Amino acid sequence: MRLYKRLMAGLFSNIFFALALIMALSSLFNLFADIFDTGEMISTVIHAINTLVIALAMFELGAGISKEYSSEDSSENVYTNIRRTITRFVGTVCIALVLEALIMIIKYSQLDLAGNLYYPVAILFGSGVLLLSLGGFLALTRGHTE
User: Fold this and answer.
1) Which range of residues forms the domain containing residue 115?
2) 30 and 4: one domain?
3) Other residues' Cβ atoms within 10 Å of the Cβ of residue 75
């Protein structure tokens, strides 16, 4: 069973690493191709940032899976590993959400679509709730790591 867990963890972490690499390379390729072809700098850079942030989140997920299940270090507390992995992943997701909301605000302000600002505000609110939930999780699991 232990070998099966390590094989599956390796498989899934490598899938996430490969997808993150493909997304990052695709984003950079599209960035340079669109800048030289169309000359639209702002929308091209914003789209590239979106894709790179998603690639970073996928990389963090792969790193967390790899660290959590492939580790031979059994002396470290499992709760500490889970807290560290969840904190890193939720932090990456919150950064991605905030960047997405800021990009939407910039995009809507350029297109004079002020009525659509409810969407980025909702994303920012959701990101705040996610961070508060992470803080609650860390506070409630503090005693298990000592």
Assistant:
1) 77-146
2) yes
3) 5
